[in-house]
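Margin note from the TA: students keep mixing up input and output lines. Inputs are the sequences; the output is the structure of the whole complex. Example:
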Amino acid sequence: MTPSIRRIAVCTGGGDAPGLNAVIQSVLIAADNRDWECYGIRDGFNGILFPERYASGGVQRLTRERVRGISHLGGTILGTTNKGNPLRFPVTLPDGSTREIDRSDEILAYFATHQIDALVSVGGDGSLTIANALHQKGLRVVGVPKTIDNDLDKTFTTFGFDTAVAFATECLDRLHSTAESHQRVMVVEVMGRYAGWIALHSGIAGNAHAILIPEIAFDLEKVAAKIRARDAEGRLYSIVLVAEGAQPCDGHRELLAPAEAGHAERLGGIGERVADALAERTGKDTRVVVLGHLLRGGSPTAFDRLAALRFGAAAVRALDEGQSGIMVALGYTGVDYVALEEVAGRMKAVPLASDTVQTGRDLGICFGD
Ligand code: F6P
């Protein structure tokens, strides 16, 4: 029989996403209603790995008072980090070189010493991979899928995605009028890493004329031809939406910074490149808007807030049922539980045969292919 729970901890890792605070609130209230104590770990696992950094404690007891009125707020009251994966923690050696070490045993030791029985780990692929490793080492863990990129497998959606799509769509709506007034090409770059979900959904909803996503290598001449065809019809402006991970069929992905110990490569810059090339090919005045981290901010939409609250409560229910090594996921009929090992390290790309891509094609949107 699974030992009963008295104390749990919750942490948020990776890039922040709207809805994190709603998950934290939901976890705390559902735990408190079971008379469990709930602790929040600061900045991913840094609160455990670097307690000296936190004057008020790297791991803090959460209370109803602390989480009151936070479900509609962006960001995370616990803080987060996408550096310093405890499984591959970068350390600098005396000769100045960097090596990665596994510090996960320190996390297990912390849980044992402080008699914390289980962890709710809220994050994207990186955090869920860490959660899976901790589960395999014997910790009771439930994962909650977060990312604006929507690139996690085995869940219909992640929270944060809907908010990012809604904001990007509003930005596109605003850009149509200025683009049309100046008869310009507006190139809009959005996040999404190696998946084109944000670009695809907001691009179709926001009436972009071309959408370039990582799943479809693009030919700039096709995009230029689309702009020329619009011009010929008297539609003298165009909106081109580019995902940060999109790449030309004869080129490479644009990086702001290469991967380094403890941190993944930083994508970005493709918007500028596409804009320059389109200006050259079409002779049109062209401008670039990079939405970047604006997509991660703001209040979660009602959809994301509800998903986050459902996920938090479901994570606590799963622990109460004695489950571990699973992620709560959104299925078509309700919240499902899926094995962390089926999610960790897997990316959900846009399926090219999906009806959403087909819808874009039926509407005449150019995908650069
Ligand atoms: O994973 C979310 C994400 O927003 C990606 O789309 C983007 O590439 C990345 O985070 C940027 O993260 P940061 O600038 O915080 O390192």
